[in-house]
Amino acid sequence: MQWDDEKIILANPDILSETHLPLEIHARESQLKETALCLRPLTEGRKPMNCWLHGKPGVGKTATARWTLRKLDTEAGITGVYVNCWEYPTFFAVLERIALELRMLGAEKLSTSFKLERLKKHLSNERLVIVLDEIDQPPPKERNAILYNLSDIPTVGLICACNSQYVYFGVEERVKSRLNPTRILFEEYTPDELFDILDQRARYALAPGTYTEHLLRTIAGLADGDARIAIQTLKNAAYLADNDDQKEISSSHVKRAWNAAKDLKKTYLLRKLTDQHRLLYELIAKNAGILSGDLWRLYLKTCNTRHIKPIAVRTYSDYCNKLVDLGLVQAKRAAIQGKVREFSIAQ
Question: Which CA distances in Å does 54 have to 149, 159, 217, 342, 345?
Fold first, then answer.
């Protein structure tokens, strides 16, 4: 392998990119096996089981789903389409994405029902696996339409992925009945598992002798179970070392890179949420330790001041839970009578 003289440490940055799919997926053997079992009937010409992958960000859901698509394509000749529902948050947009990936002819008409019928006709004798990543991002009405209609196609298997299984419980009963997925939990990575992931990436991304096992283990310990943050920290540290004209990555580079990665994760998560989520986060950030009832009243007051239509109280509770699920906000039971929680920004 030829190393770039100008970037003697970070020789192959693509290996540390978020879109890179390694040949092996570490520490997710059971999830890969369970996903494969759900989709196996498709290889035998039968209707498959759908999958619902859930777990915190950075625990391998997307990598597992994309790796499964690649395996089905290479070993069984089954086509797969990956759809990020944050980028395509409506049923029409999802169908548009699928039609584009399948190079479907005659699907240009701007009609959701027309595109759906064209897709069904196209798949009458074809098998397809669709990954619906970040399925929690579309509004409930759109999410229900996506899941209900796509799961109705006999030759289609769905892999849905999101941060929480509770999104599934929130879909309409008729959708749950038709979708009937196998729910597969992804736990946070252990430090040893993150070290294995970093070690695999570093061997191909970094020049030999520019990092140590201790440095990788340090990053693995800092990442708090999140592979995305661990990999981003290593990449940032390598960039910093290169920019400093150093021959190897130091602990100071890791410290600076870790702080940047933490901020990047927070920005990334907040950017994907609604304005109402961000407003609640803003109010909690300005009022550490605020009680749930006080937060609700402050939220209503702020909406009135800013001329914003407030969400319903039940939705408010769901939004607070979402912030907690994403690790942006910490919640603990308040030391007073009743089901009162105390909110603060996660460190």
Answer: 21, 11, 26, 26, 23
